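Dig into what follows:
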Amino acid sequence: MRKVTIVDYGFGNIFSVTSALKALNYNVILTNNSEEIIKSDILLLPGVGAYKPAINKLIIMNIDQAISQFLSRGGLLIGICLGYQLLFEESEEFSITRGLGILKGRVISLNNFKNSTDKIPNIGWRSLIKPNGFSSLNYNTGSMVYFDHSFSPVSSDESIVSSYILFGKNKIHTSVDNGQVVGFQFHPEKSGSTGLRILDSVIKKF
């Protein structure tokens, strides 16, 4: 049974993520220990809450450095929701805050994309759109997944964007995949069979 290590730093929706992985028959390890993180093969960074206190917690606990060393070893890193946003260079939430800088791009408010009919936060189910009809992720255009967010990353590298949604009249990035780092703005662990299939395919192809 393959093992997935979840970073337990006080900002993650641990129960839902753990339940989803166990439903997919993965062995789950919860830890904030740097040595365990570094030696992992598959690492999942969850996240619920505000950007600045979350990144500060990772830094105080030296988890940011552990993640860097983990990636140097060649492991697969998966970020979900706030955990996905933290992968980028910076966020404008409340004030400009530096992130982990693993992916190029920044996290901006959904106010940049909304029209008069869109509500923020974006809570609920929306359909995914494949970039140019193709995605590295296992889903069909129109697949419904669950969101709960007020900010969204904009990647500087369109080639790694693996899904979009329409928000207002704009397509916004909702997942990325560069082969070693995969991130989801939506919650695959709360998106029923579609979310489980996407999460399972990411882990199995690594």
Summary: The chain has a mean pLDDT of 96.
